[in-house]
Amino acid sequence: MPRVKVARKSTAIDMTAMCDVAFLLLTFFILTAKPRVEDPVPVDVPGSIKEIPIPDDNLAIITVGQNKAFFSVEGNDVRRSLLQQMGELYGVQFTPEEYAKFEVLPIFGVPVRSLKQFLAMDADQKKNYEQPGIPRDSVSNELFNWIRESRKAAKALHNQELRVSIKGDSKEEYPVIKEVIDILQDQEVNKFSLITTLRGASK
Amino acid sequence: MAELDTSGGGKKGGKVRSKKQSTRVDLTAMVDLAFLLITFFMMTTTLSKPKAMDLAMPDKDKKEENTLDVAASRTMTILLGTNNQVMWYIGEPGKTPPSKDNFGKNGLRKTLIENKESVRNKTGKTMFVIIKPSDKSVYKNMVDVLDEMAITNIDSYGIVDISPVEIDLLKRDGLY
């Protein structure tokens, strides 16, 4: 009786197509990945049902948490001219290295006077350094100037009105938020956005 | 696909040919690595982008000729107190008794919908909501109230500073 022989097939499959797809996807994800900006203070953003995504460019964010204000603005060119204008305003000279460092600084919360010192730190030191927040009292309202100068810079470079957003911590007391809103209103920014996270409509 | 034609021609003569090696490479490890990296990048990309809520504040130096009086009967004032509590009243402070309320589906939202209906039935116009956060309220309360405005489709609202009379009201009921 003849035995039925099962034809042995090779288990090696052609991986080429799979490899192509995998690398295509990998390239896509690498290119679209954006480094997540760590907030210097923990900020728990309140939820809302609004679904307007925040734009990627032409945006300034004022992060408020633990009674401190931090400032960040999008765009390397905007940041460069912002530092230049702020240096002129406060009489501080910055070196080209400091310009280069400030260009890639995502968020900061130090007074202009100690900005040099802050820029000199490396990434690890910056992380451990407890930033005092940008002064916003009536004696030296630096936050006001940071916002105004970045609006000027955005206008000059991109001919666009800078969008200002407030990213506040849920537990932040209202007077602090009100101070920031007042600073914005003092320069006639009456329309701005509050950054929220999405939540279901039925809470 | 990744293989080249390695089958030589027919046997011709007794020439010594160098043995052709297969160009086939084992891609398994490479694919493994690629998928590992894909997984990593997929996990680290922020899936839920933060959203924004637009807010327009009234101009600070008001030009009197541009302001429009809103009838007291169709304004509802919401005072934000401490511990996520709110107080609201229709009309002017002191004239109508304020009510306490809390956030949530059966709290402020229900009240807003009811008041919206009753104002429309009485005056035939939309309700105007004045939000007055007190110094004891937190940022979340403000966002929550603005959110309720969006949920209940109230288009006309404004954030105004609280007055001492209203702080007294809050104090009386232990919300300040």
TrEMBL record, chain A:
<dbReference type="Pfam" id="PF02472">
    <property type="entry name" value="ExbD"/>
</dbReference>
<keyword id="KW-0653">Protein transport</keyword>
<keyword id="KW-0472">Membrane</keyword>
<dbReference type="GO" id="GO:0022857">
    <property type="term" value="F:transmembrane transporter activity"/>
</dbReference>
<comment type="similarity">
    <text>Belongs to the ExbD/TolR family.</text>
</comment>
<protein>
    <submittedName>
        <fullName>Biopolymer transporter ExbD</fullName>
    </submittedName>
</protein>
<keyword id="KW-0813">Transport</keyword>
<dbReference type="InterPro" id="IPR003400">
    <property type="entry name" value="ExbD"/>
</dbReference>
<keyword id="KW-1133">Transmembrane helix</keyword>
<keyword id="KW-1003">Cell membrane</keyword>
<keyword id="KW-0812">Transmembrane</keyword>
<dbReference type="GO" id="GO:0005886">
    <property type="term" value="C:plasma membrane"/>
</dbReference>
<dbReference type="GO" id="GO:0015031">
    <property type="term" value="P:protein transport"/>
</dbReference>
From TrEMBL, chain B:
<dbReference type="GO" id="GO:0015031">
    <property type="term" value="P:protein transport"/>
</dbReference>
<dbReference type="InterPro" id="IPR003400">
    <property type="entry name" value="ExbD"/>
</dbReference>
<keyword id="KW-0813">Transport</keyword>
<keyword id="KW-0472">Membrane</keyword>
<dbReference type="GO" id="GO:0022857">
    <property type="term" value="F:transmembrane transporter activity"/>
</dbReference>
<feature type="region of interest" description="Disordered">
    <location>
        <begin position="1"/>
        <end position="21"/>
    </location>
</feature>
<keyword id="KW-1003">Cell membrane</keyword>
<dbReference type="GO" id="GO:0005886">
    <property type="term" value="C:plasma membrane"/>
</dbReference>
<feature type="compositionally biased region" description="Basic residues">
    <location>
        <begin position="12"/>
        <end position="21"/>
    </location>
</feature>
<protein>
    <submittedName>
        <fullName>Biopolymer transporter ExbD</fullName>
    </submittedName>
</protein>
<comment type="similarity">
    <text>Belongs to the ExbD/TolR family.</text>
</comment>
<dbReference type="Pfam" id="PF02472">
    <property type="entry name" value="ExbD"/>
</dbReference>
<keyword id="KW-0812">Transmembrane</keyword>
<keyword id="KW-0653">Protein transport</keyword>
<keyword id="KW-1133">Transmembrane helix</keyword>
<feature type="transmembrane region" description="Helical">
    <location>
        <begin position="27"/>
        <end position="47"/>
    </location>
</feature>
